[in-house]
Predict the structure.
Amino acid sequence: MNSFVSPYYLILSHHTLSDSWREIAFMLDMGPSGKEGISSILLAAPEYDDNFDLWAGPVFAMLEKGVVACGLEPQVGVVCFHPQYATPDGRSFPGFGHMHSVPRLKKWLHETDPALEKELSDDEIAAGGAWQRRTPHATINVLRAEQLEAAEGRRSSSELYTENIRRLVGKTDGIGSTKLQQDLQREQALG
Amino acid sequence: MHQLLSRTLTARFSMRGRSGDSLTSSSPSLACPFSKHFPKYRIDLTRVQPPKKSGLSLPFVVHLQKSLRKREWEAKMSTDIEWMETAAAAAEGERGGVQAITIFQRLWDCASELSFPSESAADGNQQQRVILGLTDATHLSVVQHWKDIFDWMQQEDSLQNLLGDVKIDVTLHNDEKGIVLVELVSHGTVIMSVANPNNTYNPDLLTEGTQSWVKRILVDQGICPFTKSVKLSGQGLGELGIPVAKIYFCSSDANQQQLSKLMAGTFRILGKYYR
């Protein structure tokens, strides 16, 4: 018999009543489907909003190593989002939960839409990458590996990222960084 | 969301070196605000030999032996021990994880409480001590790896200004009966965990903001082709056996000094995910 103490016992023992009720409400909301009922988790931590270096560095280093230590790598990925998100410059490897580097995005633009690549500076391409990861608050995204694998087989990275950059910062029909920043600030002001 | 995250899938990474810069505030780039050189961080995990399998014994005999050993340990440590009645890790099969996650969460919780005790629990420079007991040695690697990560956090130069004066010594004890103890002892001036009158933390409003972002960026702009609504994702993957399922929105009020609290909260949520 598995005599392991339920994680929910621990939750109820060590967290505030309001937290506990939120968890219970969550469980009820999820219904009987259990883990199959959740596709991904978005956990916001607003106190980290002004420190992207801490969030993207030590915090994600410890999180990703924790996932490895718990043997969860085959099942989940943790992904970094932040209101000050910056695209890796390609001179270092920040880990697997980050946006592709500027040189790689530029290469994909060149392969998929050379006109767009010519239209955008490297800084604008970086912005196109960053805006895909700029959430209102510092956020940890947990995703199921099996879903990611399936999604990977369903699309071309070069085409998808090129289209995303065009929609966000393209000169002709993109939203533009000014509007994207305004929208983000409006969402930040909510809470 | 899925398309943003492909690199989380298969590879394992090892981060090495570090920047040497303090992380107490953002470091604005002199150049483009959208591009950044990421310092590398390396956390090494100790290789732990799996415990030898003991011979077959009747379950009640094993239970009795462990009960006696637990009493012996409590007498030896001269304190109460918080026991987590863990089953053998192998019982979880290839899924792994759920017990490891709960152990991680509880250890981060203990560290958080020692660093930021509630007002009634702390007394200035008083030494604080917590002992967590596990009843199956197959989790020894989990607690050793938690200790590796925790020790790294305490020693990482860039975090010193954030973490302050409190240091927590972590010691592991184990015996031939499969009992594993994690002893945490704090030193230094603890920071009382008191309510911040300026704290505007509101989980519901945070969720509202994040959901607005999901709609604006992922759904309306089609940035993630497999997220078609604010509450559900996985659309378009049914043929591959992936069901459409809910997106769970949650939040943490941990501040930048409370890294242990943030970690505990995250592993608590992960435990929910794997239940």
